[in-house]
Amino acid sequence: MAIAKTTSKSKYFLYHIIVGGFAILLLYPVVWLIFSSFKESADIFVTAETLIPNPFTFENYPQGWEGFGGYTFATFIKNTMIFVALMLVGHLVSCSLIAFGFARLKFFGRGFWFTIMLVTLMLPFEVVMIPQYIIFAKLGWLNSLKPLVVPGFFGHPFFIFLLVQFIRTIPRELDEAATIDGANTFKIYYKIILPLITPALATTAIFTFYWTWDNLLGPVLYLNSPSKYTVSMALNMFLSNETVSNYGAMFAMSVVTLIPVFVLFFFFQRYVVEGISTSGLKG
Q1: What is the pLDDT of residue 279?
Q2: Residue 133 shares a structural domain with residue 231
Q3: Buried-most residue among 36, 61, 188, 191 (CB within 10 A)?
């Protein structure tokens, strides 16, 4: 018995050593980024193997916050927050409605359209990038958030699939009971289904935030005014092919833009696991 307990403790200790080692390995680039943001820009890659800055400087943060083109970095953060907020509303509303239709409503060709929706999930963005750009150019939407935000109000295949799988775990008896009580289809959606898929909706919101916050290709395609740049574009502007790149300011602002990401994940990480597991009702 004592030998079994010792073996169990050894496995437990070994497990945490291995997991802790992987955690340190994965976190080291972030730690290196943070410490490098306090180095002088010219020394960052010269002393890349040294973690501790020498000398230790705070100048990168005010320099980075000054921004460029007469706009401070606060402008780029504000633009990104607007972008993220609109995408959150679009994805949560459209994806939940579409998923409810696929999971609960019976209509002609439901399986066919669901398959078509999944096929679009497999298409790389590069395939549709040029046709979309031509359409938005003809609509006169360039240099605005419309090309980036409006498609979000028509659903996203990954989140639709996630929500469909989650809704299918919810017993249909709840829908039938609500129907007997006089609830119509839409009332079943927002009174029965929405409260029960909160973990999946939270997962949708978290991934939407992440993918929108660091989206670079979309804003680069459609935005050309510095007053409308997002944080990903602003960080890219610190790099230059013609003059000296300001890596110190870029690293400093990278640390600033990482703060909302870490805060969001820290408080809502449990919803990611619950949402992806599609556990539905417990008990």
Answers
A1: 43
A2: yes
A3: 36
Kindly give the parts of the chain with pLDDT less than 50.
Answer: 278-283
Whether residues 36 and 127 fall in one domain: no
pLDDT at residue number 27: 86
Count of other CB atoms within 10 angstroms of residue 23: 11
> Which residue is associated with the tokens 């000296």?
244
Q: Which two tokens stand for residue 66?
A: 């000054």
- SS3 of 174-186: HHHHHHHCCCCHH
CA angle 225, 231, 235 (to 5 degrees): 95
Q: Which range of residues forms the domain containing residue 37?
A: 2-60
C-alpha distance across the termini of the chain, in Å: 35
- Phi and psi of 68, rounded to 5°? -160, 165
117 and 236 fall within a common domain:
yes
Cis peptide bond N-terminal to 199, omega within 30: no
Same domain? 55 vs 169: no
Residues 149 and 56 in one domain: no
What are 106-130's pLDDT values in tens digits? Answer: 889 899 999 999 898 888 888 889 9
Concatenating the DSSP letter of every residue in 165-219 gives HHHTTS-THHHHHHHHTT--HHHHIIIIIHHHTHHHHHHHHHHHHHHHHT--HHH
Sign for the CA dihedral angle at 147, 150, 155, 156 comes to positive
Structure tokens at 47: 């002393």
Cα torsion angle, 187, 192, 195, 201, sign = negative
User: What's the confidence (pLDDT) of residue 134?
Assistant: 95
